[in-house]
Design brief:
The chain is an alpha+beta fold. It is built from seven helices and five strands, in the order H-E-E-H-E-E-E-H-H-H-H-H. Strands 2-1-5-4-3 form a five-stranded antiparallel sheet, sandwiched between helices. Helix 4 packs across helix 5 and helix 6 crosses helix 7.
Length: 212
């Protein structure tokens, strides 16, 4: 396949990418062999560029830095035009010799994201919902029952000198027996809480309890 045929294949793919990604994403295809008129196809021209426009300074820098390497792409860098900010990514199109012959550029318009961010910040500020950077106090909203189960399970696990993930079935059965004899499993939601603490499912806890 010639270099031109390869670029033509990518050009034919742009309308599909445009439909998949939506109108907030600009998709541009550049021919690196003619930098002064590099833009050979574009969908959703949010930046106002058109076919025949030159390569950007950054894309030219990419060519000079990465043409002799095997780097496949650059992700998530900031792009700007007169009014908008974009989150850009560039895929390097290479021929059989490994040379960069083109750039497939995906430019996401950040305008909607910025408006959403501003609206959210206004909402959080209006209702004083912003989390303070530093708080002198911290409150646990777990119930006394939850805290008691956590403490008793931790105490039981410490006897085995290994983490909860390393406990085998017999270890877990023994811990459940201890909790059962202490009457702790009779409390509301105790089985679900203990199941989470021991990294098993509630049905598994009930199955283990039959062995106690």
């Amino acid at each position: 396949m010639t270099d031109q045929e390869l670029l033509d294949c990518y050009a034919g793919f742009l309308p599909f990418l445009s439909k998949v990604m939506g109108e907030g994403v600009e998709i541009a295809l550049h021919d690196a062999r003619r930098m002064q008129q590099s833009l050979i196809a574009i969908e959703n021209s949010l930046s106002g560029r058109k076919v025949g426009d030159p390569i950007t300074d950054l894309a030219l820098n990419f060519y000079e830095r990465f043409n002799k390497t095997d780097k496949p792409f650059i992700l998530d860098y900031i792009g700007r035009d007169h009014n908008n900010i974009f989150l850009d990514s560039t895929y390097f199109i290479r021929n059989d010799a490994g040379e960069i012959i083109g750039f497939l550029c995906i430019n996401k318009d950040m305008k909607a994201q910025k408006k959403l961010e501003q609206a959210l910040n206004s909402l959080l500020t209006a209702f004083n919902l912003k989390q303070p950077e530093l708080s002198l106090y911290e409150e646990s909203l777990k119930s006394q029952v939850d805290r008691l189960l956590v403490e008793r399970v931790d105490q039981a696990v410490q006897k085995y000198q290994k983490g909860k993930e390393q406990l085998d079935t017999s270890d877990k059965v023994a811990i459940l027996k201890e909790l059962k004899e202490a009457g702790l499993l009779d409390m509301k939601n105790a089985v679900n809480e203990v199941a989470e603490l021991l990294h098993v499912s509630p049905p598994t806890v009930y199955r283990y309890l039959k062995q106690c």
